[in-house]
Amino acid sequence: MSTENLITTDSITFLDNLRNKTSESHKNLEAIPISKLLVNPNISLHAYSLYLSLMHDVVSDYEKHIYPLVENVILDISERKKANLILNDLKSIGEEKQKGHTFLKHSDQKFSIPFALGMLYVLEGSTLGGRFILKNIQENLGLDEENGVSYFSGYGNKTGSYWKKFLAYFTEFETQNNTEEEIIAGADFAFTIIGKHLSENSSL
Description:
Elements: H1 9-21, H2 23-30, H3 33-37, H4 45-70, H5 83-92, H6 113-141, H7 159-177, H8 180-201
């Protein structure tokens, strides 16, 4: 499938609706203290390592339970795995993965494909946003892509193109299947449970 020029007017409307209807849960996630610290010049190595550890819970559960559901839609999903990058970053900064917390408490729940795609939209979007966090961590913790920030480096100089490719697969599926409401529900669910996971398990 060619992913060129697949963002139609209907797709733009869908993406606008998705952003608007998840804006509150998105803002709530960004307002959590540990989330705010990531873009604060006073970020500590402790806070950074704690965030990485908690995000490993999230990313590894995605890779186990969400990625298999969307592999026939997001055709390059195997290239988007990042749990190992988090472990490498923790090792680089001399930290270990803290005791895992259950992220998807109902991992046996049968998520539908569109719901799972909505969840994946949140994780892939965080990869794009991670480029802003990357700059703060590099400047204030003295880390780099080879030493502690490979996760936030995303796909490197291909991050933008990978996001566009994801949106092409994502919007084509919605256009063909008319699943806007279910995708939005999945995205809203993901913003909410990631926020809950971070807020309940980050004691700074």
